[in-house]
From TrEMBL:
Species of provenance: Kitasatospora terrestris
Pfam families per the UniProt record, alphabetical: CBS
Protein name, entry field: Hypoxic response protein Hrp1
Location of the CBS domain: 8-66, 74-132
Keyword set, alphabetical order: CBS domain
Gene: hrp1
Length: 140
């Protein structure tokens, strides 16, 4: 059984909820990632911030990314999986909720330990299952 911990990109780092979107953009560029988890007090996961969010919900709306805070875009409750979760269950969750990135937490601390992206899935799972996943995610 392949687990979330085996396919995730380890060492995911949060953007603080009081950091700006400009800070987030710089971090994304430096780390060559398209999304960052947003964490508040005690590393509590508040949401996921994507490069697309910055463009569509800030820049395109005429807002200044150097003044808009990450917490301003942290809406809803992010989906998460535990690191010992079966990879097939991870895919079902991502497909059901149409998410392309999924934070991975440890048990029992519930601390962020990594992220799973489409690229992680493509690198670690059988091609047939990857094709099915991409078809489902892109159909919406």
């Amino acid at each position: 059984m392949t687990t979330a911990g085996e396919i995730m990109h380890a060492g995911a780092e949060c953007i603080g909820d009081q950091q700006t979107l400009a800070d987030a953009a710089r971090i994304m560029r430096e780390r060559d990632v398209g999304a960052l988890p947003i964490c508040g007090e005690n590393q509590k996961l508040l949401g996921i911030l994507t490069d697309r969010d910055i463009v569509l919900k800030c820049v395109a709306e005429g807002h200044d990314p150097s003044t808009v805070l990450a917490v301003d875009l942290a809406v809803g409750r992010p989906m998460v999986v535990e690191e010992d979760e079966d990879a097939e269950q991870v895919l079902r969750i991502m497909e059901q909720h149409l998410v392309r990135r999924l934070p991975v937490i440890n048990h029992p601390d519930h601390k962020l330990v990594g992220m799973i992206s489409e690229a992680d899935i493509a690198r670690h799972l059988p091609q047939e299952r990857v094709a099915e996943f991409v078809t489902t995610i892109c159909a919406e």
